[in-house]
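Retry 2 of 3 after timeout on previous attempt. Resubmitting structure tokens to design endpoint.
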């Protein structure tokens, strides 16, 4: 299915990272990078992504009738399979090379993309670790989180608990009020440093590792907080035996047809970047 025929710019050019940036990511499990897309590139993609999210938004209840997860965002996944233009974004070499460079791996496959639009009045995103959802045998996973509109200080971007990417499972709780309090208490009790990058410009991005604990504040403004994310894994990642229902769901949705022990390489997981040498 293709929802549109626009041809937004190709995102091929390199975004060079310094040794300091690579070291910071590896130490903390998160980093903020400025202008990963230029203002004109962001201007081209924002309306296209917004339109597809508007068409595919599945929420049919007002905010007040949703649970904490439902209040946190409009969530639409695998947008790249619905639109040729978004395919260009999600499979962009520039983003994938940043992901490979930060993780220090030879190449990366797409795990999936998802839009996370926090509505005006939308709730906070509880503390969680993304990787509890993913039936993968590797720690080399990373999410690019990119606002398509200005994120004011008032809305705020994500808060990361530095260094938690090395800890594996802190808890198996899915995103919920319970995960928020349990993981919040864990972070406080251990005195783990928390970093919030505050206001962000459209086209800036944070990258965080699959195990890094993170949360985000609610949206007290009148404006939709439009964020697009792309999740990558090392190109040699394999699927593990599902350990939970969320693993089973993820296997079906993001790794269709893949069997435990096999490469995580379904048609939904193309190699998006691989070094030549
Ligand atoms: O956008 C948010 O509020 C949370 C996003 C998130 O948890 C993620 O990208 O892993
Ligand atoms: Fe997350």
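Retry 2 succeeded. Sequence:
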């Amino acid at each position: 299915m293709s929802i549109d025929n626009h041809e937004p710019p190709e995102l091929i050019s390199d975004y060079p990272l310094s040794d300091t940036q690579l070291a910071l990511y590896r130490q903390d499990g998160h980093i903020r990078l400025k202008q990963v897309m230029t203002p004109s590139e962001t201007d081209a993609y924002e309306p296209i992504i917004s339109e597809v999210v508007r068409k595919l938004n599945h929420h049919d209840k007002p905010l007040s009738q949703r649970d904490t997860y439902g209040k946190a965002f409009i969530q639409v996944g695998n947008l790249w399979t619905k639109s040729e233009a978004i395919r260009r974004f999600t499979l962009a070499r520039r983003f994938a090379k940043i992901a490979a460079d930060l993780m220090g791996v030879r190449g990366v496959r797409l795990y999936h993309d998802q839009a996370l639009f926090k509505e005006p009045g939308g709730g906070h995103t509880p503390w969680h670790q993304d990787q509890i959802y993913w039936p993968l045998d590797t720690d080399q996973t990373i999410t690019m989180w990119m606002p398509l509109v200005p994120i004011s200080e008032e809305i705020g971007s994500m808060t990361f608990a530095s260094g938690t990417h090395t800890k594996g499972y802190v808890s198996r709780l899915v995103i919920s009020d319970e995960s928020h309090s349990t993981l919040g208490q864990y972070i406080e009790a251990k005195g783990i440093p928390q970093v919030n990058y505050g206001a962000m410009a459209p086209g800036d991005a944070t990258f965080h590792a699959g195990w890094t604990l993170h949360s985000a504040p609610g949206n007290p403004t009148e404006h939709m907080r439009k964020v697009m994310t792309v999740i990558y894994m090392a190109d040699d990642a394999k699927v593990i035996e599902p350990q939970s229902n969320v693993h089973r769901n993820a296997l079906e949705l993001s790794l269709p047809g893949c069997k435990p022990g096999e490469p995580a390489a379904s048609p939904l997981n193309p190699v998006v970047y691989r070094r030549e040498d």
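Attempt log closed. DSSP finds seven helices and eleven strands in the chain.
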